[in-house]
Model the fold of this input.
Amino acid sequence: MKKSTYLGFGLGLRPDHYETILEQKPPLDWFEILTENYLVAGGKPLYYLDRIREQYPLVMHGVSLSIGSCDPIDKHYLQEVKNLIQRIEPAWISDHLCWTGINQLNMHDLLPLPYTMEAVRHVVARIQQVQDFLGRQILIENVSSYLTYLHAEMEEWEFVTEIATRADCLILLDVNNIYVSSYNHAFDPKEYLRGMPKDRVQQIHLAGHSNQGHYIIDTHDAPVIQPVWDLYAIALQHFGAVSTMIERDDNIPPLAELLAEVDHARAIAKQITEVVDFA
Amino acid sequence: MRELQGLQNDFQNYLLDKTTAIQTAVVDVEPVPAAIRLNVYKDGYYLRLLEALQQDYEVLHALLGDDEFDQLARDYIRAHPSTFRSIRWYGKELSGFLRQKTDQSCLIEMAQFEWLLTETFDAADSETMTIEDMACIPPKKWPLMRFVLHPSLRQLNLSTNTVPMWQSYKEKGILPAPEQTDAYAPWIIWRRELNILFCSLAPAEHYMLQTLLAGGSFKMLCEGLSEWVSEDNIAMEAALFLKRLIFDQLIVRVVYK
Done:
């Protein structure tokens, strides 16, 4: 088990902000890119990616690995990911602990896995296969979920921990997703945090969501809400300093608005480091 | 793995509106019963693909109106479950699908045009030749020159006012009425640096481009040009066409074979 360097505070890179980033060079420590947006032959996406890489460290975040699917791992996709890794030399790469389709179809969604030992064994073998192919550890991210399978054998945090430990991979902890799932399935999000293997949590995502009353949908189209900030503070008390970023995928506001959210995360972390010795 | 595979099959079949077997595998408690929980995923599946189609086919959407576009999208989503890793490619078959549904050229051509714009957007990059590069080629080698053109170049034939409609809608938000023309006009779309450009071609230009794309030499290009241009002007006309292609950054390199 090996964690990479602490990067500080970052933001999800979105095309709406390309020009502003290059003009203003905002005080961010790093950007996270959506891997699939840059698995293209050329044009604007790769042009801006290269320009921004000259200025900032990057990490890669994928949505198509489908690590939990019962289809074979897509080697062609992995090779494209590997090529992009060589191009931009990211600090690390991540994808989601989910499946996205079966029988060669793609539902373009982060579909939930059953929390069973069968699924653990299946996913662990595939993560190992991916890590062997890429020659490096990957991070897996906990996803928001809206349902529970009847035959679940463990809690989500036990499932994540079991897989990360057995596969010897790292964790991208989405604090908003923990909040969303805790609301949807009525569990204590603090118990989730306590259940995570501290030394494997490499990155944190913070995002907004859409509350439908009896359940929450993880839309990433709004600012982070106060209960998620509170949970973030608890997470930092538990894990120590973790590279953190704001993830906005829809209803993209001006860059300044997201920078303010990054600053807020920075302020929370600063406050916590004053009372907790991360060393 | 059999159980996991069966569960994934059932789940996906629910999203594709084929079976409901997955409902029995999901915790069903108030206030959010299993069907509602599953429908978060099912609705999400449809809405994500609809949004991808709306982004790629903005003017087709305007031409059809919300209801008809929504129906087209529903039919397409049902007929074409995605096999693409990235949702960016999902709308690839829409113009072909539309052709099976309607004979309205203005709709089919708008779909073709809008999709080719997306293809040009992130097509491969390439260095291109300059006028100075061309000037370095000795005149005796000109007849044997063949040309590699920019990988972003796309072609289509339009029999309606597709491009003026698209431009008017994009620039002013106004959609002119579709108009049918007497014949198909050849158009090209390409990327010059990061900008997407398009233009129609005169018959002689179309002939010259087709000759180059087919791997024809400059000599062959000149020989066929006599159909449109007097003998005295052929060399000048062909050279001007090459100059224009170079200015538009469409020639990657010259090869001799």
Remarks:
- The interface with chain B takes residues 36-37, 39-47, 64, 68-70, 74, 77, 99, 101-109, 111, 113-114, 116, 118-119, 122, 146-151, 184, 214-215, 217 of chain A (CB under 8 Å).
- Chain A has nine helices and ten strands.
- The first strand of chain A starts at residue 9 and ends at 12.
- The mean pLDDT of chain A is 95.
